[in-house]
Amino acid sequence: MQVRRKPGWLQKKVSPADHAEMDRLLGSLQLNTVCREAACPNISECFRQKQATFLVMGRACTRSCRFCNVSADRPLPLDSGEPARVAEAVRQLALAHVVITSPTRDDLADGGAAHFAATVAAIRRVSPHTAIELLIPDLQGSDGSLQLILASYPDILGHNIETVPRLYAIRAGADYERSLRLLQSAHEFAAAIPVKSGIMLGLGESDDEVLETIAAIRATGCSYLSIGQYLAPSRRHHPVAAFIEPSEFDRYRDAALQLGFAHVESGPYVRSSYHAERYQG
Ligand code: SF4
Question: Has this prediction a pTM greater than 0.90?
Answer without folding.
Answer: yes
